[in-house]
UniProtKB/TrEMBL annotation:
This is Gfo/Idh/MocA family oxidoreductase. It holds the Pfam family GFO_IDH_MocA. Residues 154-249 form the GFO/IDH/MocA-like oxidoreductase domain. InterPro entries: Gfo/Idh/MocA-like_OxRdtase_N (IPR000683), Gfo/Idh/MocA_Oxidoreductases (IPR051450), GFO_IDH_MocA-like_dom (IPR055170), NAD(P)-bd_dom_sf (IPR036291). Residues 3-122 form the Gfo/Idh/MocA-like oxidoreductase N-terminal domain. One of its GO terms (molecular function) is nucleotide binding. SUPFAM superfamilies: Glyceraldehyde-3-phosphate dehydrogenase-like, C-terminal domain (SSF55347), NAD(P)-binding Rossmann-fold domains (SSF51735).
Amino acid sequence: MSLKIGMIGTGWFADMHAKLLTQQEAVEVVAVTGSTQEKAQQFAAKLPNAKGYGEVEQMLDAHQLDAVYICTPPFAHGSFEEQCIKRGIPFLVEKPLSSEADLPHKLLQGIQEKQLITSVGYHFRYMDGAERAKQFLAERKLALALGYWMGGAPGGTWWRRQERSGGQFVEQTTHIVDLLRYLAGEVTEVYAAFHEGILSEQDPNANVADAGTVTLKLSNGTVATISNTCILPAGDHAGLHIYTNAGKLEISHGGVKDFTAGQIVEYLNKSNPYEKQMAAFLHAVRTGDTSRIRSSYEDAYQTHRVTMAANQSAASGHAIKL
Ligand SMILES: NC(=O)c1ccc[n+]([C@@H]2O[C@H](COP(=O)([O-])OP(=O)(O)OC[C@H]3O[C@@H](n4cnc5c(N)ncnc54)[C@H](O)[C@@H]3O)[C@@H](O)[C@H]2O)c1
């Protein structure tokens, strides 16, 4: 029997996920909820057999869905997850969990009570390079990590608004925070300093910080900094460099470079991490076996706490212990 999937959100990433899903055998995207019914119907019309809805309750009442994909911006979370939890429907939600500090904790309680299958779109975890780095690091002693997300500010009305996106560290650099947690361990303390004023001068709609640098302590003693900027005229680079007793590892979108004893060996990413993320989630929905999911809501909540602590630290000027 085909799995029946509902999508919430009709933007860039809902489209990416819907295209991947419709290429699968025994998977159908049967329903879409948008911020308006018109947008949802336009999106649904591009799919083989889907209907569009303006309200999530209408979609969930009309279809017996096996799973839901939530692909809305950071400010538009809460009621979608609550509906899925109430009805016991597994969901894959795009990162970040929210632009608000407290909402994910409340949702997590419901997810745990229902033991609901969840997956969060931290796709770096599914990259071949991250997998290989994890194997290398199991044999090495870590001391330091340096993370980066250097680029420009995406357009669109929500990304550049702090109250809508949470700012670059929460919305984008969260991938690097999550990769740090996945590869190096849990974060226990966060101190952040942000620069403001350049982007907001260029664009009166913008109120997010231009740049920031965040110092992190990990429970195993590793120290890290993760820096980001969104004022560059063009994309620069994003990634995580990890320093160990056996040399340095550089993980990026392209793969992983291993610098050991004067040699550099590069391993390029070959598989599509979004496909692997989808396959792990669909396998869990079909079988109940969640072991292939690398980022559950519960795990992603810890990344959320770190990025929210960075905002809190930058605002207060104090280090935040988690
Ligand atoms: N994992 C990744 O690599 C990756 C890449 C891109 C985007 N994302 C994430 O996906 C999410 C969506 O990003 P996007 O680029 O698709 O944004 P987008 O602006 O292209 O689309 C957002 C969609 O959400 C809809 N929406 C907003 N409020 C809604 C509401 N209340 N009810 C129903 N629909 C609503 C909008 O109408 C729009 O269709 C973001 O959290 C972003 O961080 C993840």
